[in-house]
Amino acid sequence: MTDSDPPHPQRTPDSQRMEQLIRAAIEQVRADGSLDGFLAWARSAIPAHLEMDDELDSIDAGRLSTLLGLSLWNAIPRADHGWQPLMQPVPHPHERCLCGSGLRYRDCCEPFGPMPELPIALVWELLLADLPEAAIQEALRQDAIPRHLYALIAANWLEQGRAGRAVALLEPLFAAAPPAIRPVRTRSATPAEREPPAALDSRFEPALDVLCDAYDQLDHWKKKQTFLLRMTETGDRALKAAAWQRFCTMFIDEGQYDYATEAFAQAQRQAPDSAATAVLELTLLAAQHRDEHARARAHFWQHKLRRAGQAERPIMDFLAHAAVDPQDALVASHAADLDPLLLALRDWIAGLTARPLVPHRIELIHDLHAAIGDRQLPLFPAAELPRLPDPPCHGEVGALYPAPELRQLERAWHRRFRAVKPPSTHLLASQPAPVWDDDTWLGWLQQEPAAGDSLDILDDLATALYERPESSLPWIAHQLLAPLLERANAIIDLSLSYSGARQLPWSDERNRAALRLLFRLYLYHAEAGDSSAAAMVLERLLALNPRDNHGVRAELMNHYLRQHHDEQALALARRFPTDILADLAYGEVLALYRLGRQERAAEALDAAVGRLPLVPRFLLRKRIKRPPLTPGGFTPGGDDQAWLYREAMRDVWESEPGLLDWMRRHTA
After folding, report:
1. Residues 329 and 361 in one domain
2. How many angstroms separate the CA atoms of 232 and 235, rounded?
3. Structural domain total, the chain
4. Dihedral (C-alpha) 459, 463, 464, 467: value to the nearest 10 degrees?
5. Domain of 28?
6. What's the pLDDT tens digit per position in 263-277?
7. Is the peptide bond before 314 cis (omega within 30 degrees of 0)?
8. Residue 378 scores a pLDDT above 50
9. Measured distance CA(593)–CA(564) in Å, rounded
10. What's the rounded Cα separation, in Å, for the pair 49 and 27?
11. Phi, psi (rounded to 5 degrees) for 193
12. Are residues 165 and 31 in the same domain?
C-alpha cells in the first residue's frame, strides 16, 4: 500500500458470503470433478450459503441453486483442463433440465435464468491465494491467469524476498510489444486473459505499484524512474494518474515538496474525482504540516466525491477523520501496515499528555573550566582547528540528574531496554540494538507511566524511533516523536526554572540526553518547514551549551541571513572569531556587506579566504562539479566543505545585488 492509496473498501456481508461460496465450490470441484456431483452439491449447499431458505420454497431454491451452480462450474479453472473451466452450456429450452426434475428446461429452471456470467478473474483472485507454487507456475505457462492478477503473484514473491522474479513477471505487462508468453495449446482467449499493452487500464494499477516496490527492493531507482516517466506519457489515464501519484509520494519522502506539488497537479489532472487523489493531497499537505489547509481540503473532498458518486464508506470515514485531525487520520489509515509495537508506543506517548511534568534536579558546577573542558573525542585533529574562546558564563552552570526514585526507574529500564547511547554528537548508535524485536520494554513502559518523566528514557525512545524507517513519514514523526520531544523540552524548562542554572554543558555527560533531545526537536521543526521554531531551539541550544558541540551555530547563522537578521548574524560570528565553519566565516562577510560596511566586509573576506580558500571558487561558479563527499562530515578547508556551503547558501549570495561581483574583484 502506497501513501496515496485510499483506505481499503469494507467487505459487506453479501460479498463475504459469496466469497465463502466460491471457495467452497473450488474445493468441491477438486474433490469431485463430475458435473452431476457438483450440481447435487450446489442444490444442497448454496441455499444455506446464501440464506435462500427465508425467501424461497425448497423447489425454487433448488432451481436457482442449479443455475448459480452452473455459473460457478463455468468459472472455476481446472488443473486437469489446462487451467481452463470445463464449460457446460445452458440447456436448450426443449432439453431436459439439469436440476434433475425430468422436466424440459423451458418448463423448469429457465424462468429463473439466465444467470449472470461469473467473471473468471474473480475466481482466480481467490484461487491464487491457495494454489501451491508449482500449480501457479503451470498456470502461468498455460497463459491461463488473467494478466492484471499477476500483481497478486508478484506481491507474494516480493514478501518472500524474490523481487527479481516479481520484476521478470510484471515488466512484460508494460512493455511496448505484447508479452512473449505463448500458450501450450491453441485456444481462444478472453479479453481478461490476454491484454495487449494498449488495453491496460485501472485494473493494472496494483501491478504498477508492485513493480515499483520490486524496483525499490532491488535498489533499481533509475529503472523505476524511467518506467514511471514512460507510464506518464503512454499509459491509460488511470495508469498515468497512478504513475504521477507514485512520483508525488517519492518527492514527499525526499522532502522535495515543490516537485511533489507539481506531480500531484498532474495526478489530479488525470484522475480529478479519484479517492486516491484525495488521499494524496491530504498526504502532501500533512507532510508539510499544513494541517489547517488539510482540514479544509478534507471537507472539500467529502462533497466532491459525494457528487461524483464515489462516497464509499471507508474513504468518507477517512475524510471525516482528516477534517478533524489529518495527521491522526493518516496514521489510522496505515495502521494495518504498521508494526503493532509502534502503534502501542504511540498510545503510550499520547497518554503522557495528561501526566504532570516532574522536574529533574540540577547540580550547580562552580569549576567552569572543568564543566566546559573537552571530554569527548574531537571531530577533527586539533592541529586543524582554531582555538575557540572560552564562552562567557551567563548565569550558573549545572548538570541535570534525576531524583532517586526516578533514577531507580531508569536502572530498571536499562535492564529491559538493552541499547547503547549514540556516540559523541551522533543521533544513532554505532551498532543499533534489535530493540524492536522484543516487546518486553514496551510492556514495562505500559506499567510504568512515570518513565515518561525521565529524560534518559525519552532520549532512548527518540533514538529507537529514529532507527525505524517509518519514522521518516511526517505523520509518524508528528504522532510519536513530536510529543515526546515537546515533553522533554518542557521538563528541561521546568528543571531550569527551579534551579536558576542557565547553562548545561555537553561536556558533562549527565546533560547529553537533554541536549540530544533538544537537537532532535530542532530537526523536527526544520523538517516540518517551521524555520522560526527551529531557530528558537537553535538559540536555546547555543545558550545552554555555548561551546556548541553540535555545530548548531552554522544553521543559526544561515537562518539569520535568510531572514535578513544581519545584526544578529554579525553578533553570532563575533562569538566565534576564528571559526573553521564556512557558514560563520563567510556569513560574517555577507552580513557586513548587507549592512553597508564594505571595508570591514573586505577584511572579513580576507580572513575567511585565509582559513577556507576554496569557498569563493565554489560560490562564484554558476556550475561546478560535485567533489567526492566525506561520509558523515567534511574535510576542514577541503573542496567538500566548500561544495556543501555552496549548496546551502549560494542562492542567498546570488540574490544580493552586486555581491558576487564584489567577491570576484576582491579575490582575483
Report:
1. no
2. 6
3. 4
4. 170
5. 13-123
6. 999 999 999 999 999
7. no
8. no
9. 12
10. 15
11. -85, -30
12. no
